[in-house]
């Protein structure tokens, strides 16, 4: 589905990622690594939030940036970095208006996804008055209404309490879209189809979750 070929990311005189060659087809892929390893930069390449210094990224064979942006959604660790408008309904409609959809089509998409995640009652609420868990669900729904084929999550549970963490993870588990999840919750990622370990800007582990995670733990001891 998505392919990285000889991807390098440099910032100034620092090499953040080097020689990334990987193809992802699995439904659930986890990304692990120490802070500063380059995993967040890697994730932000998926939909063009970061640009490679060299190399190519393709989605279903296309290297066009618009295809990355249109087919890959991104959910930030902090939903406040993603929510733009003060009213929930306005925020959910923002991207759809940019797609030039009719008012009826916009309302139908928002109604369907908010009902699926049981947050339809939040549409008229002020976003700054929502709880952390509610804001994270609004951020997720804001991505889903755009109908991406893949969703990238950058440590989405870090700011959540246990109840909201479990609620969000149930939502992620039920998604039909392909999911790539950056997380320090290793037990959670053991249930995924594949795990990639990034260290010092390189992929040093890639494969069956238990084997990759156990190797990561051994390297950290």
UniProtKB/TrEMBL annotation:
Keyword Hydrolase tagged: no
InterPro entries reported for this sequence: AAA+_ATPase, ABC_transporter-like_ATP-bd, ABC_transporter-like_CS, ABC_transpr_CbiO/EcfA_su, ECF_ABC_transporter_ATP-bd, P-loop_NTPase
Gene Ontology cellular component terms for the protein in this record: ATP-binding cassette (ABC) transporter complex
Gene3D superfamilies referenced in this protein's UniProt entry, alphabetically: P-loop containing nucleotide triphosphate hydrolases
Keyword Cell membrane: no
Transmembrane segments: none
Record-annotated ABC transporter domain positions: 2-221
Alphabetized GO MF terms: ATP binding; ATP hydrolysis activity; ATPase-coupled transmembrane transporter activity
Keywords: ATP-binding, Nucleotide-binding, Transport
Entry-linked PROSITE patterns: ABC_TRANSPORTER_1 (PS00211), ABC_TRANSPORTER_2 (PS50893)
Pfam family, one: ABC_tran
Domain of life, source organism: Bacteria
Family to which this protein belongs: Belongs to the ABC transporter superfamily.
Protein name as catalogued: ABC transporter ATP-binding protein
Organism lineage string: Bacteria, Pseudomonadati, Pseudomonadota, Alphaproteobacteria, Hyphomicrobiales
């Amino acid at each position: 589905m998505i392919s990285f070929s000889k991807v390098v990311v440099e910032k100034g005189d620092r090499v953040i990622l080097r020689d990334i060659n990987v193809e992802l087809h699995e439904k659930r892929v986890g990304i692990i690594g120490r802070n500063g390893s380059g995993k967040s930069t890697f994730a932000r390449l998926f939909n063009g939030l970061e640009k490679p210094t060299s190399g190519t990224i393709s989605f279903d064979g296309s290297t066009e940036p618009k295809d990355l942006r249109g087919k890959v959604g991104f959910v930030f660790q902090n939903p406040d970095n993603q929510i733009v408008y003060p009213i929930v309904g306005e925020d959910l409609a923002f991207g759809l208006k940019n797609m030039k959809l009719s008012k009826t089509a916009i309302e139908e998409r928002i109604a369907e996804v908010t009902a699926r995640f049981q947050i339809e009652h939040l549409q008229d609420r002020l976003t700054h008055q929502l709880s952390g868990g509610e804001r994270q669900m609004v951020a997720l729904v804001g991505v889903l209404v755009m109908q991406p084929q893949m969703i990238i999550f950058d440590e989405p549970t870090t700011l959540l309490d246990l109840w909201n963490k479990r609620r969000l993870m149930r939502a992620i588990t039920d998604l039909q879209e392909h999911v790539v999840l950056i997380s320090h919750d290793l037990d959670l990622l053991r249930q995924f189809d594949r795990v990639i370990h990034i260290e010092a800007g390189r992929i040093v582990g890639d494969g069956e979750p238990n084997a990759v995670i156990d190797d990561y733990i051994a390297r950290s001891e």
